[in-house]
Recover the amino acids of this structure.
């Protein structure tokens, strides 16, 4: 999966370029959001081009949701035929300027998910672990790593992404939610196996 989020200030064309390589998935931010002291701008016209380009290249979008209005937009786009159900949603909670990384935010967004959607939670900073555990309990999936959090625990830097992944995999195993293999993940997400090995 590639990101079309890019960095604040990148052009839409720069952000969209990786989609033409036809990865299995790519992120699709479903609106603009204040991002700390910057604005992560996603004009509706650009978002429409991103969605259509992903469809043309056979790329499944991962809908990035930073605020509840973005989920409302996703539901509207499904009804309008701009997105093909079932969709996959990434609930990104805790970005300064967006929805708080709280259990209440997660439960609210989960209740608004389109029918049949799969979902992942990405808790920012110290919310990564507790929201990840909640996602496991609620039947969702988890995103962990340095992009969202650099600490293993309060005051202790993580040594690697692998350390963060190993912890959530261990917790998932203890909760009897085994970690999916790549082929199982493709099946969960509705992706056709496109790589021949």
């Amino acid at each position: 999966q590639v990101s079309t989020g890019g960095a604040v200030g990148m052009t839409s064309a720069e952000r969209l370029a990786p989609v033409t390589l036809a990865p299995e998935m790519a992120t699709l931010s479903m609106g603009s959001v204040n991002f700390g002291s910057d604005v992560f701008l996603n004009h509706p016209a650009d978002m429409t081009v991103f969605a259509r380009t992903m469809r043309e290249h056979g790329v499944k979008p991962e809908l990035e949701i930073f605020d509840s209005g973005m989920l409302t937009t996703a539901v509207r786009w499904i009804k309008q035929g701009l997105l093909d159900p079932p969709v996959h949603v990434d609930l990104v909670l805790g970005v300064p300027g967006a929805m708080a990384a709280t259990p209440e935010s997660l439960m609210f967004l989960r209740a608004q998910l389109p029918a049949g959607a799969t979902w992942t939670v990405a808790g920012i900073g110290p919310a990564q672990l507790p929201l990840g555990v909640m996602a496991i309990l609620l039947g969702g999936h988890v995103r962990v790593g340095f992009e969202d959090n650099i600490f293993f625990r309060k005051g202790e830097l993580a040594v690697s992404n692998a350390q963060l992944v190993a912890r959530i995999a261990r917790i998932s195993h203890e909760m009897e939610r085994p970690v999916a293999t790549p082929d199982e993940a493709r099946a969960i997400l509705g992706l056709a196996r496109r790589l021949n090995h």
